[in-house]
Amino acid sequence: MIFKTDTPAQVEFYYKAYKEMISLFARPYLDEVFDFSKPEFFDQLYAYGEKIAKMPEFKQPRGVKHFIYVNRTNFGLYTILQELKATVNTGTYKPHVK
Fold first, then answer.
1. What is this structure's pTM?
2. Could you give the CA distance from residue 44 to residue 7 in angstroms, rounded to a whole number?
């Protein structure tokens, strides 16, 4: 998502933008329980989408197709959970590290 040919200013810009995007999309996974019925999360998602849609830096396709697929898949899942007004226990799985 950051190219070798990017200038230092571009690297910083895209790093911050992708970090913000990933932080937002990961929010449901960071809490033990996430309530999708609350509109604040979706307000932030839509506001971020509008913000980057206006940025000329995002007019050209950029990034790995798998990253785009995962984000779209998560957004679709989040939308379904919002319509269901679901509260999801996301803290049930704890990875076991040996």
1. 0.71
2. 29
